[in-house]
Amino acid sequence: MELEAIIGLEIHAQISSKTKIFSGSSADYFGKEPNLNIDPICMGMPGQLPVLNEEALKKGIKAALALNCRVNTYSHFDRKNYFYPDLPKGYQISQFEFPLSEHGFLEIDMNGAKKRIGITRLHLEEDAGKLTHFQGGTLIDYNRAGVGLMEIVSEPDLRTAEESVAYARLIQKILRYTDASDADMEKGMMRFDASVSLRPVGESKLYPRAEIKNLNSFRSLETAIKFEIERQKKLWADDKIPAQNITVGYDDTNGTTYFMRLKEGSDDYRYFPEPDLPPIILDEKYLEEVKSQLPELPDAKYIRYLSEFGMSEAEALFLVEDRDLAFYFDKVANLSKDAKKTASFVLSILVGRLKKEDLSLADCKITPEHLADLINLVNSGSLSMNLAKGEVFEEMFVLGIEAKAIVAAKGLQAISSPEELEKICKQILVDNQKSVQDYLSGKENAFKALMGQVMKATKGQANPELATEILQKVLKS
Question: What domains can be seen in the chain, in order of their start residue?
Fold first, then answer.
């Protein structure tokens, strides 16, 4: 019997707001002393009333719109009742019956073919704290409790682990592009729950599923799904078709899943409307305003790089993978009006230099404005490309100062005087008679050798185009 996997993902991404979703405590908890970013609201003290963070709401809406979701003009929060030690109130404020948004989709690229993955909903909720287990006990850090979360629930449209990772990676990029979430998995800002079931190919029925909880990397997501598919295939082969939904954990060390409990349903959580928060009522004018603030998204940017700038697919993919680098590139290209030279400087020289020093773009001292000025100096004939890519760029990278100041201080202005270049070229021909004879006998490489001598004599300051033209004229004469 041929089986196919039916996979759905729940992606939990922390909202990049300064404060928690219902209180004024800082949401910047990573690396902080335990239980420092807490307050009576997120700790569920009696008599404390939550207030919705407007920034968190707006970023949730931006993410929903970028995921092609319909944002509901009416939604409200619910209490999801369950007890865990890291949930101080004994319930979580979430959304159930009336979520913020629904009915979205994304298209993933699998080996050149597009596949649409439906998104059931994106709703808002609060995060729980963090448990640290050790032999003999458990420590609880409530700094994360109350930080805003987006839960993005897919339709069961995924069929392989590879599709699941491609979808999750695209979600991460979009959340970063919209500045809705940093989605940094190393800091626990993005986590996955993957539901996996099997069915005979050709059937439309959905069989009981296993939900793999709290996967925190793309590698774990892929490995866990692959293992779970194989585990369930063995059950089907032994005629032990799963009869109930279950929750499983993932052992990252061994790459295996393990049974935790029967899967809870909505009835187990005893949802009811959150009495301490009013409904969220949005008007179309506000939604249009938020929509107008969306940036160009990764897929659209990729297509533009190919069509407008003539980039290779590899170059375009490399740029769109990193939001900050893509935004940096766009700003330089817009200022310099030269996308080709911008790509040359950004993709090879700048990125290579950052890698060499093990730095991020945030550490770079060269602003987009400064790099655009450097390119403009080259295009105006005021600076040779060799000096721009070499000595001048290096000084800019180390010192963070303008190219013009470096060129002026070091006397690196391009030699663009036809008379001066003609005098230099004539002297080069006198000093390199063999190369001259080689050129006159039809050896094209001899011209390159002579040009090299011109650039050497001018310490790289000769305007290359003008020098080439004059050298050719002198040789013909």
Answer: 3-288 (no CATH), 296-410 (no CATH), 418-476 (1.10.10.410)
